[in-house]
Specification:
about 290 residues, binds (1E,3Z)-4-hydroxybuta-1,3-diene-1,2,4-tricarboxylic acid, alpha/beta, eight-stranded parallel beta sheet, 11 helices, two-stranded parallel ribbon, globular
């Protein structure tokens, strides 16, 4: 497999200055492979994108903290994610991917290492299978740690997954809004279906992220902004934002993170919304012990 480099070395400096304490609540690390090999089941083989690069990007963008989500290329070996968290001086926490037979002691060790959630991935191009009964078992096991579940699926699975998500006892966070089409604007069928789902499920949060994957138009992502800004307004206490750096597996239209940061004031036009999206909401989930 050819190694994929899915990020740019020279992101622009954003015009928008995030409020102090802003959290990038969806990003990943890859390797370094020599220390943390990729899973034999990985569907893509990235170049190394380690913690030093992530923290340099954080600083360049004017962000303060990271939530590192275990990427599918590392399977259920969370060592690269844990290593990055350990090097962050307390400024990163993470979301793990675990096997159903993980022991309680191993879950406790992940908690100690800064993990605050588990991810269930339903994308066929990223994982071989998504065993729902086993996922539910994991969800029940992590409840005692006050973790949450992060779910990644595509829009056509939304209705089918609702009973599964309703059976999850913890808070649920949906990656990238379950990848709706944004080409039709805020009244588009997939955006409306997702909005209805959030309205009827108060324990479900979402990440208003991945303009670069969801936009049919590309930069300046007007279709994404028009479709997603109403969700930020409507669900302002349940939205998170993230860069998705290093943009796993992207080979065309690799985004400039400076431009992604500049979407924030278009998605969340007031200082109040920006504070909720970038600080209050992610801090509540990932650093609940921090009194501000
Ligand atoms: C994302 C999106 C993707 C990949 C992964 O774990 C992963 O490999 O999440 C994707 O390919 O859409 O959220 O980073």
């Amino acid at each position: 497999m050819t190694r994929i480099k899915s990020w740019t070395d020279t992101p622009s400096k954003p015009s928008f200055v995030p409020p102090a304490g802003a959290v990038d609540a969806h990003c990943h690390v890859f390797g370094p492979e020599a220390k943390f090999p990729f899973s034999p089941k990985a569907k893509y083989h990235p170049e190394d994108a380690g913690p030093n690069m992530l923290f340099a990007l954080r600083d360049r963008l004017g962000l303060s903290r990271n939530v590192i989500v275990q990427a599918s290329c590392h399977g259920t070996d969370n060592r690269a994610t844990l290593d990055a968290i350990a090097r962050s001086n307390g400024l990163a926490r993470g979301v793990a991917v675990v096997d159903p037979d993980i022991s309680d002691a191993e879950l406790d060790a992940l908690h100690e290492g800064g993990i605050r959630g588990v991810r269930f991935n339903f994308l066929k191009r990223l994982v071989d299978n998504a065993p729902r009964a086993k996922f539910l078992d994991i969800a029940r096991r992590i409840e005692r740690l006050s973790w949450h579940v992060v779910i990644y699926f595509e829009a056509e699975l939304l209705q089918e997954l609702i009973p599964f998500m309703e059976a999850i006892p913890t808070l649920v966070v949906i990656d990238h809004m379950g990848r709706p089409s944004v080409a039709e604007g805020p009244d588009g069928a997939e955006i409306q279906a997702f909005r209805a789902f959030l309205e009827s499920h108060p324990n479900v949060w979402t990440k208003v992220s991945c303009a670069e994957r969801l936009s049919a138009q590309g930069h300046p992502f007007d279709d994404f902004v028009e479709s997603v800004a109403p969700l930020v307004e409507a669900f302002q206490d349940r939205v998170l934002w993230g860069t998705d750096w290093p943009h796993p597996n992207m080979q065309d239209a690799i985004p400039d993170e400076g431009q992604l940061v500049d979407l924030i004031p278009r998605l969340a036009p007031t200082a109040d919304l920006q504070r909720k999206l970038l600080i209050d909401n992610p801090m509540r989930l990932y650093w609940p012990e921090t009194r501000r």
